[in-house]
Design brief:
- Belongs to the UDP-glycosyltransferase family.
- This is UDP-glucosyltransferase 73B2.
- It comes from Actinidia rufa.
- GO terms for molecular function: UDP-glucosyltransferase activity.
- The protein is of the alpha/beta class.
- The chain has 2 domains: about 5-240 and about 475-485, Rossmann fold (3-Layer(aba) Sandwich), CATH 3.40.50; about 255-460, Glycogen Phosphorylase B (Rossmann fold, 3-Layer(aba) Sandwich), CATH 3.40.50.
- Helix content is about 40%, strand content about 15%.
- Strands 11-10-9-12-13-14 form a 6-stranded parallel sheet, sandwiched between helices.
- β12, α14 and β13 form a beta-alpha-beta unit.
- The longest helix is centred in the C-terminal third of the chain and has 19 residues, at about 440-455.
- It is globular and about 65 Å long.
- The two termini are about 25 Å apart.
- The relative contact order is 0.12.
- The mean pLDDT is about 95.
- The chain binds uridine-5'-diphosphate.
- Uridine-5'-diphosphate binds near residues 319 and 374.
């Protein structure tokens, strides 16, 4: 496996490896740069299931060779202005990956059955060719988001549009996208800029893969998957969403069976304190606010969000980080919030990292103000939590669009780090989504239905019928085994 250099990619690859181990006796090697390998090692140590069949291989990489600060090996470690250099630097992993693949082939007397690579590592198709095996791409997000992301990068449809609204090739004509749903990098892209020069060739190479694994379930986004299959024209196996088992099959309760799964990160609050606090609140009354593992918002936006929350009077748990322009590792300063905000104790502020799975799995949590990262979206919906969307980067705006238009479980409050956010709008949307008798209750009901579909798709018990995502995994395994070279 060749995951991209971001924690949000490494962890789903690890989850995929674990899922493959549930039904096969394959030995899986995950290859990443030295610091990312150490990160994976700590995540495996925290949850060592099947670790004897999991190998971690370190690919030599020196960030200083690529005009990056020393020891920069993931998107989390690099300032926004330098992320593009990290993307371009990631292509330098091709040579060591080729070397590793050749040495595994030599040691085993046959090539690996398959190389599963990140969509951003399109060069992996060449590595697979070089050792005579197949390559399968894995997108850590859903079908709708993958289709939109690929098509927008390949076609840059907004460049040809006469207004802010545009159609995306592959999507139905009536399904309009808006330029505010594009990250500023894509909005400005013209095919010749550094972003296009990275994404366009890597995505095109990935489209030459033998097939595609998608971290989603067939039933939760039929339209997105139909669009994706028609657009990419190679087999798509929907093997997810890969969520912690306790989250899917434990009860939505106040207990502490969901306290694990921190992915090796230090929580900014004692998880038990979080649960005790949640236990003191009524069902579906709490708004959980998080912008994922690496994003944050602007300083003015942060202030308005805080004021809007106060005006709504709803209890909340907010994972806070310094606003844009400050070092994410800086101490959080109270001046970034209204005076006395924390002391008024309307909600809990969690610095840096929260036990998200446990919070979303608690019966008191009813709304999730989220950046709409795919893992967060799936975690929230699996627990029947309604979403207040604030997409920031990557394919998040497409996930938000899917949740608003196809699933009916999301209302957006803002987009991006530049949009104007007012306390009044925050208050309005929070009240709307938390109102059990109106739209909010309906959104939670629909989210609960999606949660049931997710559980059914991931169902393992044979007597109740294997879920569609487990059947897709079987199909994937059969397909790569039939394509595999016999041993020499
Ligand atoms: N997460 C967490 N605590 C936090 C922030 C994030 O446990 O304070 C986890 C969250 O549960 C999810 C992942 O980090 O599994 C974030 O992934 P997502 O795809 O939502 O967003 P990304 O971080 O890749 O933007």
């Amino acid at each position: 496996m060749l995951p991209f250099m971001a924690h949000g990619h490494l962890i789903p690859f690890l989850a995929l490896a674990r899922q493959i181990h549930q039904t096969t006796n394959f030995t899986i090697t995950i290859a990443a740069t030295p610091i990312n390998t150490a990160y994976l090692r700590s995540a495996v140590a925290a949850d060592p299931v099947h670790s004897h069949r999991l190998r971690l291989a370190s690919l030599p990489f020196n960030s200083s060779d690529h005009h990056l600060p020393p020891n920069t090996e993931s998107t989390e470690a690099v300032p926004l202005s330098q992320i593009i250099s990290l993307f371009h630097a990631s292509a330098a992993l091709e040579a060591p990956a080729r070397h590793l693949a050749a040495s595994i082939s030599a040691a085993e007397g046959r090539p690996p059955i398959c190389i599963i690579s990140d969509v951003f590592h399109g060069w992996a198709t060449r590595v697979a060719d070089s050792i005579g095996t197949v390559n399968v791409s894995f997108t850590t997000c859903g079908g709708y988001g993958t289709a939109a992301y690929i098509s927008v990068w390949q076609n840059l449809p907004h460049r040809k549009a006469e207004s802010d609204e545009f159609s995306v090739p592959g999507f139905p004509n009536g399904c309009k996208f808006h330029s505010s749903q594009l990250h500023p990098f894509i909005r400005a892209a013209d095919g010749k800029d550094p972003w296009s020069r990275f994404f366009q060739p890597q995505i095109s190479l990935s489209l030459g893969s033998f097939g595609w694994l998608c971290n989603t379930a067939e039933e939760i986004e039929p339209l997105g998957l139909q669009i994706l299959r028609k657009y990419i024209q190679i087999p798509v196996w929907t093997i997810g969403p890969l969520l912690p088992k306790a989250m899917l099959f434990g009860s939505k309760s106040s207990d502490s069976n969901l306290l694990g799964g921190h992915n090796g990160r230090q929580s900014g609050i004692s998880p038990q304190k979080c649960l005790d606090w949640l236990n003191s609140k009524p069902n579906n009354s709490v708004v959980y606010i998080s912008f994922g593992s690496q994003n944050t918002i602007g300083a003015t936006q942060m202030m308005e969000l805080a004021k809007g929350l106060e005006q709504s009077r709803k209890p909340f748990i907010w994972v806070i980080r310094p606003p844009i322009g400050f070092d994410p590792k800086d101490e959080f300063r109270s001046e970034w919030l209204p005076e006395g905000f924390e002391e008024r104790k309307q909600g809990l502020l969690v610095r840096g990292w929260a036990p998200q799975v446990a919070i979303l799995g608690h019966k008191s949590t009813g709304g999730f103000l989220s950046h709409c990262g795919w893992n967060s979206a799936m975690e929230g919906l699996s627990q029947g939590v309604a979403v207040i969307g604030w997409p920031l980067a990557a394919e998040q705006a497409y996930n938000s669009k899917l949740m608003m238009e196809e699933m009916g479980v999301c209302v957006e409050v803002a987009r991006g780090v530049q949009s104007e956010v007012t306390a009044e709008e925050v208050k309005r949307v929070v009240e709307l989504v938390m109102d059990e008798s109106g739209k909010g209750g309906e959104m939670r009901r629909k989210a609960g239905e999606i949660g049931e579909l997710i559980r059914a798709a991931m169902q393992e018990e044979e007597e109740e019928g294997k879920g569609s995502s487990l059947r897709a995994m079987d199909d994937f395994v059969s397909a790569i085994l039939s394509a595999a070279q016999p041993p020499q």
